[in-house]
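Renewal narrative, Specific Aim 1. Our central claim is that a sequence can be written position by position from structural information alone. The example that follows is taken directly from our test logs and has not been curated for this report. It begins with the structure tokens describing the chain, in the order in which they were read.
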């Protein structure tokens, strides 16, 4: 079982720590978390190949490194990629099935993990939001029962922008962010004022998140390891045992993850998933 990731800093390589037991999705947390309203973070897009799962993995690392206990749901049934990298925290579900919707929504208030990250499969964002709407989830968000953050991962084509009109009816009370993911060297067009007005007239965003590019070789080695980014940086394998990952590649991943964390901090993600810090 993988150990809890070590703190990531830009200045020096992460140092390994003695292996400890990984936490399950229902591990005990501090009693003070009981007062925090449950938060749901949905990461998705209707277009495939935009790196949704990479971002979901980075979010789980970011929350863990900030001592926020989270659970995750992978909707890429029957074999999910997010589950492969974070098996202890992740359950594979079909978000269109009422029984699986119950596993997520009915346990928001009872789970000791007050943040739930949902990695929506390619093509599944609009159906997922429609399903949440039908069960009254957005009414509960509007009334303040739950917190809701949507990270909409857009591609480099106009077709990605066309998704905005489809999801606009569901994000009125959400913290809605557009995410540009450069991790695989994706380039994005620049929106002229007319294009911007056409696609954004019906939706108000909370901001834009930019995920920087990660060295292809470093990304490939993390994929082969099957370990979370922070566990790879700590030079451990997926089971938390000492590994022999390249110092250079670990350095690239460390710097990349720190920059991603900077983006999440810039938009106030920690405040959005917990009661506002004083």
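The sequence written for that structure reads:
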């Amino acid at each position: 079982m993988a150990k809890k990731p070590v703190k990531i800093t830009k200045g020096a390589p992460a140092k390994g720590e003695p292996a400890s037991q990984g936490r399950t999705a229902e591990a005990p947390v501090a009693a003070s978390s009981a007062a925090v309203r449950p938060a749901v973070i949905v990461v998705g897009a209707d277009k495939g190949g935009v790196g949704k799962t990479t971002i979901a993995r980075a979010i789980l690392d970011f929350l863990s490194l900030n001592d926020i206990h989270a659970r995750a749901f992978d909707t890429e049934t029957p074999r999910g990629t997010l589950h492969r990298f974070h098996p202890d925290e992740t359950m594979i579900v079909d978000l269109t099935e009422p029984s699986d919707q119950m596993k997520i929504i009915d346990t928001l208030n009872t789970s000791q993990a007050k943040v739930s990250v949902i990695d929506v499969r390619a093509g599944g964002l609009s159906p997922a939001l429609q399903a949440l709407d039908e069960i009254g989830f957005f009414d509960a968000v509007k009334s303040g029962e739950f917190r809701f953050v949507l990270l909409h991962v857009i591609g480099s084509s106009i077709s990605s922008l066309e998704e905005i009109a489809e999801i606009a009816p569901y994000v009125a009370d959400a913290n809605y962010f557009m995410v540009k993911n450069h991790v695989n060297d994706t380039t994005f067009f620049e929106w002229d004022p007319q294009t911007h007005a056409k696609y954004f007239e019906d939706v108000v965003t909370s901001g834009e998140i930019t995920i920087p590019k990660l060295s292809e070789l470093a990304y490939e080695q993390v994929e082969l390891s099957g370990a979370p980014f922070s566990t790879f940086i700590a030079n451990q394998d997926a089971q938390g045992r000492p590994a022999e990952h390249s110092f250079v590649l670990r350095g690239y991943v460390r710097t990349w993850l720190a920059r991603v964390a900077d983006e999440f901090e810039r938009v106030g993600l920690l405040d959005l998933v917990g009661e506002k810090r004083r």
